[in-house]
Amino acid sequence: MSAHFQHCVTDDDYAKIGLFFLQNKQDVHPSFTTLDAISLLYSYLTDGHLYLALDADQRVIGASAYYHGTAEQEFQDKNIALIDIVIVDPAYRGTRLFLNGFRRMVYDIAAAHPEVEEIRLAALAENEYLCRLYARLTESRYEREGNLGKEIVFCVKINRIIAILNSFLKV
């Protein structure tokens, strides 16, 4: 299965990602409401960057987002990019799709924001699969209280994650 990843820039992109996000909001957390989803989408639209994953027929199969800086520092810490959401249609979930989408996002972050030194990945502590996956790709972590409960934030230097992702290209 091939997928195309793109940074959202047009109204059509935002409409597609908005619909996908609302249709799959329960994948974020079972208690995630429509109002929560709209609020989070608004936050990404105003302070973040949204990405789409599209299949060969241009159907949305995934969505992700990052912030350049962190909300705790009012986005002034421009040496950090925080990726805190990834949603993939269950029929397409897999390591290869994740790695390809993650690679595209990290490369785009490095190109658009050369001052970024560290990538952070946030996951709900109860999401054991995502926490195990992120732990394999990162160097350190810390905990924080999020809107949906305890989150673990995984940290890695951008040059290190680029090297890790490039090593997977050879496989």
Walk me through what this model shows.
With 171 residues, this protein is α+β, with helices and mostly antiparallel strands. It contains 5 helices and 7 strands, in the order E-H-H-E-E-E-H-E-H-E-E-H. It has helices spanning 11-23, 34-47, 95-112, 128-137, 158-169, and strands at residues 4-7, 48-54, 60-68, 80-88, 118-124, 140-146, 149-157. The protein has a 7-stranded mixed sheet, with helices on both faces. The two termini are 17 Å apart. The model has no long low-confidence stretch (mean pLDDT 91).
Main sheet overview: 7 strands, mixed
Strand order of the largest sheet: 1-2-3-4-5-7-6
Number of helices: 5
SSE order in H/E notation? Answer: EHHEEEHEHEEH
Helix proportion of residues, in percent? 25-40%
**Share of β-strand residues:** 25-35%
What is this entry, summarized?
With 171 residues, the chain is α+β, with helices and mostly antiparallel strands. It has 5 helices and 7 strands, in the order E-H-H-E-E-E-H-E-H-E-E-H. A 7-stranded mixed β-sheet has the order 1-2-3-4-5-7-6, sandwiched between helices.
Any chance you could write out the topology, listing elements then pairs?
Layout: E1 4-7, H1 11-23, H2 34-47, E2 48-54, E3 60-68, E4 80-88, H3 95-112, E5 118-124, H4 128-137, E6 140-146, E7 149-157, H5 158-169
Parallel strand pairs: 4-5
Antiparallel strand pairs: 1-2, 2-3, 3-4, 5-7, 6-7
